[in-house]
Design a protein that fits this description.
Blueprint (H helix, E strand, L loop, with lengths): L3 H39 L11 H20 L5 H12 L9 H6 L1 H18 L2 H6 L1 H25 L5 H4 L3 H16 L3 H11 L4 H33 L7 H31 L3 H27 L7 H14 L4 H10 L1 H15 L2 H33 L3 H4 L11 H13 L1 H32 L7
Helix pairs in contact: 1-2, 2-3, 2-16, 3-16, 3-20, 5-13, 5-14, 5-15, 5-16, 7-9, 7-11, 7-17, 9-11, 10-11, 10-20, 11-12, 11-19, 12-14, 13-14, 17-20, 19-20
C-alpha cells in the first residue's frame, strides 16, 4: 500500500501534467491572436478593417494580455505584470499592433475599471479587520508618508542643480518643485494591490495591514497633495499668501464625496433587495453614472454658479463599497460576486494601462526616474520598518511591509496631470521623469508584493 509521501508525489505529478495542456492552450491562443492581428495590420488582405477599430483592438488585447499573464503566472510572476507588459509591447510604441488613437478610444474602459476597483477596495475595508490592526495601520500611514515625502523631496533637492530644468530656479522654487516629486512618491496603487490579492486569494495579518494602509492612503494623498500644491503655488508663482479657506474647501469636498458614497451604497443595497439584480451589473452601471455625474456636476457648478466643487468619483465608489460591506448583510456575497467577474476587468485595465505608456516620454526621463525609484523604495523600507517596530508588529510583518507599498498607478498619474495643468512650464519635465518612475514601480511593485505574500504564507492558490 503506497505511503502518504508517495501519494502526495503522485498528486503533484498529476497536477503538473494537467497544467501542461493548459500552458500549451494559452500559447497556441496567443500565437493565433498575434498571427491574425499581424495579418490584419501588416498585409492588405483586410483593408476594410480599420486599425483603430476599438472592438477589434479590445478583443485582441484581452486575448493576448490574458495569455501572457497566464504564462508569466506559471513562472511565479503576477498576472497583472503580464497584462501590463502585453499592452506595452503590442501597443503603439513597440510592435504597433494598434495605434495610440485606438488606445485613446478605449480609455473610458479604464474609468469604468477604476470605479469597479474602487468599489472592491471599499468592500475589502472591513471595520473588524481595521480595529484589529488599528495601531499598525495608523503608524504606517503617518510614518511611511512622512519619511517618503521628506526623503524623496530632500533627495531631489540635493541633486536639483544637476537637473537641467531645475538648475535655473532659485532655492525656494527648487524646494517647491522637490516637494511635488515628494508628494507623488507618497501615492500608492489600490488597484494593483487588490488585483494581486484577488489572484493569490491572500488572507492574513500582512494582507489586511497592507491593503488597509493602501486604501486609506487614497484619501490621505488627496489631502496632502492639496496642501503641497497650495504652498507650491505661492513659492513658484509668488502669488502672495495661502488662502486658508482652500483647506476647508478640500476637506468639505472629501466629506461630501464620502457621504454621497454612503448614500450610494445604501441605494445599491436597496436595488439588490428589491430589483433582484446581480451585484456586478449594478456596480458597473452605477460606476459609470457616478463618474459622469461628478464631472457634469463639477462643470455645471463652475460655469453657472462659479463654485469650484470637485467631487472625486473614486472616493464615492470606495465609500459605497465600504457601506455595503459594513452596513448591510450583503458584504460577503458582494465581494464574492465582484471577485467572480474581476478577471476580464483587471486584464483590460492593466493591458490598456500598459498600452497607454508613452515610451518617448519614458526615454527622456528614465535616468532621473531610476533615482526617484531607488530613493522612494529606500524611504518606504525605512519608514515601514520604523513604523512597524514602534507599533509592536512582529518582525516577519515589519521586515516585509515595504514590498506591499511599491506599486503606483492611476492616482499618481491623475495627480501628475493636475501638476501639468497648474504649472505648465515645470509640469511637463516633472511628468516625463515621474512617468518613468511610476512605470518602473508598476512593473516591479506587483512582483515584490506577490513575493512577500508567498514568503509569509498568506497565499491560498496553487
Amino acid at each position: 500500500m503506497p505511503n502518504l509521501s508517495q501519494l502526495k508525489k503522485n498528486g503533484e505529478i498529476l497536477t503538473n501534467l494537467n497544467q501542461k495542456p493548459e500552458m500549451s492552450h494559452r500559447l497556441i491562443s496567443l500565437f493565433l491572436a498575434l498571427s491574425s492581428m499581424s495579418l490584419i495590420v501588416h498585409t492588405g488582405l483586410f483593408n476594410e478593417v480599420k486599425l483603430v477599430s476599438s472592438t477589434l483592438v479590445l478583443g485582441f488585447l484581452l486575448i493576448a494580455a490574458y495569455c501572457v499573464g497566464y504564462v508569466l503566472s506559471q513562472w511565479g510572476l503576477p498576472r497583472i505584470t503580464g497584462n501590463l507588459l502585453a499592452g506595452l509591447l503590442l501597443g503603439p510604441y513597440f510592435f504597433q499592433y494598434f495605434s495610440a488613437e485606438a488606445v485613446s478610444d478605449l480609455s473610458f474602459l479604464n474609468s469604468l475599471a477604476l470605479a469597479f476597483i474602487a468599489f472592491c477596495a471599499g468592500g475589502e475595508f472591513k471595520i473588524e479587520g481595521v480595529r484589529q490592526h488599528l495601531k499598525s495601520i495608523l503608524f504606517l500611514i503617518s510614518g511611511v508618508t512622512t519619511v517618503v515625502f521628506f526623503g524623496v523631496s530632500l533627495t531631489v533637492l540635493a541633486i536639483s542643480e544637476m537637473i537641467p530644468f531645475m538648475a535655473k530656479y532659485n532655492f525656494l522654487t527648487r524646494m517647491a518643485i522637490s516637494a511635488l516629486f515628494g508628494v507623488i512618491a507618497v501615492a500608492r496603487s489600490p488597484s494593483s494591490a487588490i488585483a494581486i490579492i484577488s489572484e493569490t486569494k491572500a488572507k492574513g495579518d500582512y494582507t489586511n495591514i497592507v491593503l488597509s494602509v493602501t486604501i486609506v492612503m487614497d484619501v490621505v494623498i488627496i489631502i496632502l497633495f492639496g496642501i503641497v500644491i497650495s504652498f507650491c503655488q505661492v513659492l513658484i508663482s509668488n502669488s502672495g499668501s495661502i488662502d486658508p479657506t482652500f483647506f476647508l474647501d478640500l476637506l468639505a469636498e472629501i466629506a461630501i464625496a464620502l457621504f454621497l458614497g454612503f448614500l450610494l451604497g445604501k441605494s445599491i443595497v436597496f436595488l439588490i433587495q428589491n430589483v433582484k439584480m446581480e451585484f456586478p451589473v449594478v456596480i458597473i452601471a452605477v460606476g459609470f453614472i457616478v463618474i459622469k455625474f461628478s464631472h457634469l456636476l463639477g462643470d455645471y457648478l463652475h460655469e453657472v454658479h462659479d463654485i469650484g466643487l470637485h467631487l472625486e468619483p473614486l472616493l464615492m465608489c470606495m465609500s459605497a463599497g465600504f457601506t455595503i460591506q459594513n452596513f448591510s448583510k450583503y458584504g460577503k456575497i458582494f465581494l464574492s460576486k465582484m471577485d467572480g467577474v474581476s478577471l476580464p476587468i483587471y486584464v483590460a485595465f492593466f493591458a490598456i494601462t500598459g498600452a497607454s505608456i508613452n515610451v518617448d516620454i519614458l526615454k527622456s526621463g528614465w535616468m532621473l526616474g531610476l533615482v526617484i525609484v531607488a530613493s522612494r523604495t529606500l524611504m518606504i523600507f525605512i519608514g515601514s520598518n520604523l513604523s512597524g517596530r514602534l507599533a509592536g508588529d512582529s518582525p516577519k510583518i515589519y521586515k516585509n511591509t515595504w514590498m506591499g507599498f511599491i506599486t503606483q498607478a492611476g492616482v499618481s498619474l491623475g495627480l501628475l496631470t493636475e501638476i501639468v495643468r497648474r504649472f505648465p512650464e515645470i509640469g511637463v519635465p516633472i511628468q516625463s521623469i515621474l512617468i518613468a518612475a511610476i512605470t518602473l514601480n508598476q512593473i516591479a511593485g506587483p512582483i515584490a508584493f506577490k513575493f512577500a505574500l508567498k514568503k509569509l504564507g498568506e497565499t491560498n492558490n496553487r
